[in-house]
UniProtKB/TrEMBL annotation:
Residues 355-460 form the Pyridine nucleotide-disulphide oxidoreductase dimerisation domain. Keywords: Oxidoreductase. It comes from the Bacteria. Its cofactor is FAD. The keyword Transport does not apply. It comes from Nonomuraea harbinensis. GO terms for molecular function: oxidoreductase activity. It is an enzyme of class 1 (oxidoreductase). Its EC number is 1.-.-.-. The keyword Ubl conjugation does not apply. Coiled coil: none annotated. This is Dihydrolipoyl dehydrogenase family protein.
Amino acid sequence: MSDEFDVIVIGAGPAGENVAQRAVRGGLSAAVVEERLAGGECSYWACIPSKALLRPVELAADVSRVPGLEVGPIDTRAVLARRDEAVSRYDDAGQVGWIESVPATFVRGRGRLDGPRRVVVDTPDGERVLTARHAVVLATGSVASVPPVPGLREAEPWTSHEVTAASSVPDRLAVIGGGVVGCEMAQAMHGLGARQTTMLVRGGGLLERMEPFAGELLAESFAAAGIDVRPHTSAERVERPEPGGKVTVHLPEGPPIEADEVLVATGRRPATKGLGLESVGLPADRPVEVDDSLRATGVDGGWLYAVGDVNGRNLLTHMGKYQARACGDVIAARARGEADDLPGMRAVADGFGPPQVVFTDPQICSVGRTESAAREAGFRVRAVEYDLADVSGAYLLGDGYRGRAKAVVDEDRKVLLGVTFAGPGTAELLHSATVAVTGEVPLERLWHAVPSFPTVSEVWLRLLEAYGL
């Protein structure tokens, strides 16, 4: 069977879905190819289930800070049941229906490139060949990286995929890694009943790509909760003699760690294996390099695009969706022979530094550059900080509130280069920071954006006052 479409999208995660929607809105026909579940990693094994697991732990912490309220034990079985509801019990019928309502054609199977504008799909019913009149878009996302620690892969470790889909909480959990996934899932599993949670962090602290105070506050929270964080520690060897049995993690120094499960959270790599990149002259083991219109560089004819994690620009769901919207608009404009350099048609926000939230307690969120990154980029920088506990709105959220805010200012242009918040509930502050950073709002104008009292957002006024306005 041979089928021709204007646009073929390989990957039906949030990025792939958005490309198809924007291309169809622009007057093109589209097919979306997906091997697993429509909705992608985010919907079933990442963003959605992880936040469903974290929310009860976060809420229990919030309640514990308010006098007059008592925190009862978390019903782990009920939490896992709600997680199952959040992921539609791993049934993608709703997502497939949405794709078809776009309308786009959904093709179940593993898709791979087979030369220019040609996609071969291995479906349950056999091979199906699709051809594209205008564009093929790669939106295959990323997969968890497992470091080459002797015995680790053979021990069948958990990754983000397994931990978010867990049917029960292990009594003892070892976590390798101190980044976002490691921190979120260590707290989720510990809060839901893991008696012993140990984090092995190769670097000097948690969340090292963010401002130092963020990881420090989180480490203090983890210590108070009983999570054992071990900086400058790596797994040397892992043993699991029996499938599903006890795991032993050997360390360079000291006694080994005994655990029921080991979670590997050491990063992700683009899902390019078996994608047929060699057939169009691209390396198969690297992210697909793209320009700001998300068109792959180095491919004759300019018909290949890549959005989301597979291009390596920003491994965040919301940034993949942002890229996808720009990509779909550009493809449609080029197909009509119109200009494709209009405002909003290119993924320029990638360069500002993406907004990101770590849904732990305390929440950690940031947008733009850290102070060190801004200095390394050559900006003349001034940074100001403020203790969130000194904001009236934060005090009202509960006793013992701890948090901090930091703004990084470009001294030459008097605009914000980056903002970081750490504290309970601070995720809702992030979009205002994102608008200020990406919009390059002058500080003197930002001063007239008056925050409501008594809210935590009053920290904006305090940061500007600390700067001298």
